[in-house]
Amino acid sequence: MSCRPAPAGPRILVAALDWGLGHATRCIPIVHRLLSRGATVLLAGSGASGGVLREAFPNLSYHELPGHEIRYARSAGGLMWKILQQLPRLARTTKAERRWLARFVQQQGIDAVISDNRYGLHHPGLATVFITHQLGIRTPLGSVGNNLLRRYHYRLIGRFGACWVPDGPAPGLSGLLGHPGPLPTVPTRYIGPLSRFQKAEAATLFDLAVVLSGPEPQRGIWEAQLLQQLTNFPGKVLLVRGQPRDKTSVTSGNLTRVGHLPAAELQAALAGAALVLARCGYSTVMDLAALGKRSILVPTPGQTEQEYLARHLTESGFACCLPQKDFSLQQALATAGRFSYHLPTASGHQHLDEAIDELLARLEVNREA
């Protein structure tokens, strides 16, 4: 009797947007779970976020996507105008993504795509999943403008087969961003917060860990604003500059500056910090929730999503959130010392596991048909 080899697992492309690093970092637990279930995972990205995926999974096949290369304004008031100026280029990049995927499907013979905010990675012959935490759109345009944008956003999501939202039940970590009321017409699942980190007991290594992130020029502006204040800070400080290509580490007095830390080292550093100072990006919020860390969060000026999150997380007691304008580290630490923190209990990845199992079961049915 001849023994037939076991059928290979499904081939799944996981792709992340390149606006900051968070879209890539939150794909990491998804990739781990796909691999543990026997799937063949191919990665795609661009820029620094693509580097995060390559670093996390050096043995997986990685493919370069068209880059978005979004630029933020130097001032909060100019951010919306800056993004509006870039919309034609973003639309061209989305079309380039569609062409890229059409060629990729022919060359690689994949079965499914999981796209974190890459709007062009849908295909009529594949199972496709779109990941976003921002179903509700927050802009300075008011409720009418936000509702119109949400409807347009849902049209884009409707080109995919399903939508996964990395949050738990309402209000969750994302508040009205992830729980706006009306949902997209495609099947939409809440898969729980996504983080590459796990909570662990650790001795205190730093009095303060500062993690910079996000697109330029705001990342650099925020770094320059903080540096002088950090050099005068009496405790031990770690500054992670959010520059994946920068492997340097410099210690001067109580301040240690590093360009980037691999995931395991960053987890250890944050776990060993008495307090974390960071941007109010949603992926950062999910990482802090997983680690159970007290934090001071500062939204990127003019980025309405982060400004809304700051209000929501302050009201819920998750984080002490303060504006960047006239930021004083001394005053922020005093405010955080009086803040009543209420950190959520880590929920695990049960909902993510269920969503992945459902996707793989559907792929199995498709392959047998």
Q: How would you portray this structure in words?
A:
The chain is α/β, with parallel strands linked by helices. The protein folds into 2 domains: 11-192 and 348-368, Glycogen Phosphorylase B (Rossmann fold, 3-Layer(aba) Sandwich); 206-338, 3-Layer(aba) Sandwich (Rossmann fold), CATH 3.40.50. 39% of the residues lie in helices and 16% in strands. The protein has helices at 22-25, 28-36, 47-56, 79-108, 142-157, 218-231, 263-271, 282-291, 304-316, 329-338, 350-368, and strands spanning 11-16, 40-45, 61-64, 112-116, 127-131, 162-165, 188-190, 208-211, 237-240, 249-252, 255-258, 276-279, 295-298, 320-321. It has a 7-stranded parallel β-sheet, covered by helices on one side. Strand 8 (208-211), helix 6 (218-231) and strand 9 (237-240) form a beta-alpha-beta unit. The chain is globular. Mean pLDDT is 91; it is low at 1-6.
CATH homologous superfamily identity of the largest domain: Glycogen Phosphorylase B
Helix content: 25-40%
Report the structural category. alpha/beta
Low-confidence stretches: 1-6
So what's the CATH class of the largest domain? Alpha Beta
The total beta strand count reads 14
- End-to-end separation: 27 Å
**Which fold name is given in CATH as the topology of the largest domain?**
Rossmann fold
Any idea what the shape is? globular
| Sequence of strands across the biggest β-sheet | 3-2-1-4-5-6-7
- Provide the residue-averaged pLDDT: 91
The number of helical elements comes to 11
Sheet of most strands: 7 strands, parallel
Number of domains: 2
Order of helices and strands: EHHEHEHEEHEEEHEEEHEHEHEHH
**How big is the Rg?**
21 Å
Question: What is the beta-strand fraction?
Answer: 15-25%
Identify the CATH architecture of the largest domain: 3-Layer(aba) Sandwich
GO molecular function, one term: hexosyltransferase activity
Keywords: Transferase
Protein name: Glycosyl transferase family 28
Pfam family, one: Glyco_tran_28_C
